[in-house]
Design goal:
Largest sheet: 8 strands, antiparallel
Strand content: 15-25%
Helix content: 25-40%
Number of strands: 8
Shape: elongated
Number of helices: 7
Order of helices and strands: HHEEHEEHEEEHHEH
Radius of gyration: 23 Å
Structural class: alpha+beta
């Protein structure tokens, strides 16, 4: 499903847009991330072999733990915690190429649908910098071409399409995470195109937040969730906590309303299934009494699955620094020939 390479690709797309340069392609990122990991594994094995021939140091009583692991550098990000309204369900054919869903956006009082359609697909919006070729990227061609030829198979085939969510969070020095932007879609997306578009849409066009600025990059964390296995529920409680995301729709005051929670939300909030359904209905715009939720007209639900992956800016920074070093070494090697 989602991988760290997907998150790195979103970081590279965002950074490139802010810096007005061209970003790496998803296949390039996947290959270079694999090579970066292999480099670390080989270095670890080399150090281990060296340690084997060293004399074993004396250890006094009580000193078995000679050094502790440094937890401050952990870059992992927990899975998404927030919710999203959705378009009218059953879903009507969309006239937009990439229908979007903001997971926390409140329903519009003037519309029968809570579909979010950000302006990111206009010519002058969040695609800024993606097609800019004025930066000095031509000299990198040979190195990245080599990467494409030697790339390893991706854990998720690039020909597959998935509904997806892209989330940006800021992480404080104490590890507190705050939502900075999150938009997704239930329309299956080619991963390269979908991740690129929604990385920018979530960063720049989530109307609940101001656009992300360059100065915020070091505090950012990215999380990707790919969704799959959508199954209509026999009833609104026909799903499992922790395993399924839930998408509901119902009719209220003559309007069709809907909302969704990703699979981990209910568990993180410590809700029961009934509390989850009631919360979803309220997020969609229902204002009735909690005990009356079963009486709502035409309440339907779909369960789905999805596993996310995340990483923080520091992971991208270290990986990107290694990539740039490889480019420089490649250029220097060519210059000596």
């Amino acid at each position: 499903m989602a991988t760290v390479a997907h998150c790195l690709f979103c970081f590279d797309v965002l950074a490139a847009s802010l810096e007005k340069r061209k970003h790496l392609s998803l296949p390039q990122v996947e290959d270079l991330w694999s090579r970066f990991q292999n480099k670390d594994q080989q270095s670890s094995l080399s150090n281990h072999d060296t340690d084997d021939v060293d004399d074993e140091p004396d250890i006094e009583d009580g000193d078995e733990h000679m050094s502790g692991s440094d937890q401050d550098g952990l870059e992992g990000v927990s899975s998404d915690e927030d919710e999203a309204p959705m378009e009218e369900f059953p879903k009507q054919p969309s006239t937009l190429p990439l229908p979007t869903i903001s997971r926390l956006q409140a329903p519009s009082p003037s519309s029968a649908s809570t579909t979010s359609t950000p302006s990111s697909f206009s010519a002058s919006s969040s695609r800024l910098g993606i097609d800019d070729t004025s930066s000095k990227t031509s000299s990198k061609t040979s190195f990245f071409s080599f990467g494409r030829r030697s790339q390893q198979p991706s854990p998720v085939s690039r020909e597959e399409q998935y509904p997806l969510f892209v989330t940006w969070n800021t992480v404080s020095s104490r590890g507190h995470k705050s939502l900075r932007g999150c938009i997704g879609t239930f329309e299956p997306q080619d991963l390269s195109t979908g991740l690129e578009n929604y990385a920018l849409t979530a960063a720049f066009d989530d109307t609940r937040f101001s656009p992300i600025r360059s100065a915020e990059l070091p505090a950012l964390a990215n999380h990707i969730t790919l969704l799959h296995t959508f199954i209509p529920c026999a009833h609104p409680l026909d799903w499992n906590l922790g395993s399924h995301g839930l998408r509901i729709s119902f009719t209220y005051h003559g309007r069709r309303m809907g909302a969704t929670y990703l699979p981990d939300v209910a568990v993180e909030q410590e809700w029961s299934k009934e509390e989850t359904v009631v919360s979803l209905m309220r997020k969609a715009g229902w204002t009735g009494r909690s005990r009356d939720w079963r009486n709502v007209n035409d309440l339907r639900a779909v369960r789905y699955e999805g596993k996310g992956e995340g990483c923080r800016w520091g992971v991208w920074r270290d990986w990107r620094a290694w990539v740039d070093q490889q480019v420089r070494e490649s250029q220097e090697s060519k210059g000596k020939r």
